[in-house]
Design brief:
It is built from 13 helices and 11 strands. By secondary structure, the chain is α/β, with parallel strands linked by helices. It has 2 domains: about 250 residues, Aldolase class I (TIM Barrel), CATH 3.20.20.70; about 60 residues. Strands 3, 4, 5, 6, 7, 8, 9, 10 and 11 form a 9-stranded parallel sheet that branches.
Length: about 375
């Protein structure tokens, strides 16, 4: 049987591995994306940006980081969110001008203030508006730029919500999107409870050879492999599981190749990556402004260190440029084994295992 871990195609963009980094608000800036790429992610998506912000932001040094794309991170996706369909097209054009290779439309964000402003997951309640947005973006950008969509499995679990989900899902492909990512939770569920992998399995059977990526409860490399095998999706997008653990991509590649789960990164390996992440953030934001951004990353990176509670507390106290490096000197100067992250998140809902056949996979996954 052909392996399900071959190439993944987003339109004319071909990725060599089907485990990618999702858009992460407040996190997936250039520095995080580059670290993920260097540690095995085949593709990354920038943190979601509002269409009206993209159209209004001035090309000043202090705004440089918002739409920054590094020369060595292609392909990279730019994610759009908004309420007014007329603003999506021009905003998508601007992202393309800044170097983004794929335009991703966010119909999945479950944050209350986002929903209150008729953005993100709110669009799953109004198929006509959602599909108008897809149409406008597809028409606005060059034909060689893939357009993709991020969704959840519906507003809630009512029959009406399910019907609207499928109207948008099928309609988006009909209007030219190259792929759709579906998170296995509803909008009202937010991040509570398990992700329904059975829904993703059913959805992939419905999608056929249309490219579908799955999302939800991917907190370690094994979960990435399990989702692809169980549901038959063409690829997966790792979100919260990648924050402070970019090694998840490297580990997933090893497991997909039939190798044992790699050991967690050593203290020195962690120090090297953290220091490089800080260096790039400092370059992107400046010495002062990068401190709060990197503090939240430090808290996550600390989870891999045997003395994670003490290090987390130290990173929380960092307020001055240079203090970050002092934490590295204090806690990362002696090498030793790292620790595997414990997954205390809800387990995904799935029933009986499924054995994939070559007919149930998109041709792009058949290496």
């Amino acid at each position: 049987m052909t392996s399900p871990f071959g190439k993944l195609r987003l339109g004319n963009v071909t990725l060599d591995f089907p485990v990618v980094q999702a858009a992460l608000s407040g996190y997936s800036d250039t520095a995080m994306r580059l670290i993920a790429r260097r540690l095995g992610a085949s593709y990354t998506i920038c943190e979601v940006m509002l269409d009206q912000f993209i159209l209004a932001v001035k090309p000043r040094r202090k705004n440089h980081h918002f739409m920054h794309v590094a020369n060595d991170e292609h392909p990279v996706g730019g994610q759009l969110m908004g309420a007014d369909p007329t603003q999506f097209g021009p905003a998508a054009q601007r992202l393309v001008e800044h170097g983004f290779d794929v335009i991703d439309i966010n119909f999945g964000c479950p944050v209350k203030k986002v929903l209150g402003r008729c953005r993100g997951g709110f669009h799953l309640s109004q198929p006509e508006v959602a599909l108008e947005i897809v149409e406008r973006v597809r028409e606005a950008v060059p034909s060689d730029i893939p357009v993709t969509v991020k969704m959840r499995r519906g507003i809630d679990d009512t029959a009406e919500s399910r019907d609207k989900f499928y109207e948008i899902f099928d309609g988006a492909y009909h209007r030219g999107v190259a792929a759709i990512t579906v998170h296995g939770r509803t909008v009202t569920q937010r991040y509570d409870g398990p992700s329904r992998w059975d829904f993703l399995r059913e959805l992939k059977q419905h999608a056929g050879d249309r490219v579908l990526l799955g999302s939800g409860d991917l907190f370690d490399a094994q979960a990435c492999i399990d989702m692809i095998r169980y549901t038959g999706v063409d690829g997966v997008t790792v979100a919260r599981g990648a924050i402070g653990n970019p090694w998840i991509f490297q580990q997933a590649r090893a497991l997909a190749a039939g190798l044992p789960m790699p050991n967690p990164p050593t203290i020195f390996e962690q120090r090297e990556v953290i220091a490089e992440h800080y260096r790039m953030a400092e370059e992107l934001y400046g010495a002062d402004k990068c401190v709060p951004t990197m503090r939240k990353f430090g808290i996550k990176y600390a989870q891999l260190h045997p003395q994670h509670e003490e290090i987390r507390a130290e990173f929380c106290q960092v307020k001055q440029p240079g203090a970050w490096r002092e934490v590295l000197v204090k806690w990362y100067s002696t090498d030793g084994p790292g620790v595997l992250l414990s997954n205390d998140e809800p387990k995904p809902i799935r029933t009986v295992p499924v054995e994939l056949t070559s007919d149930s996979r998109h041709p792009a996954t058949q290496a």
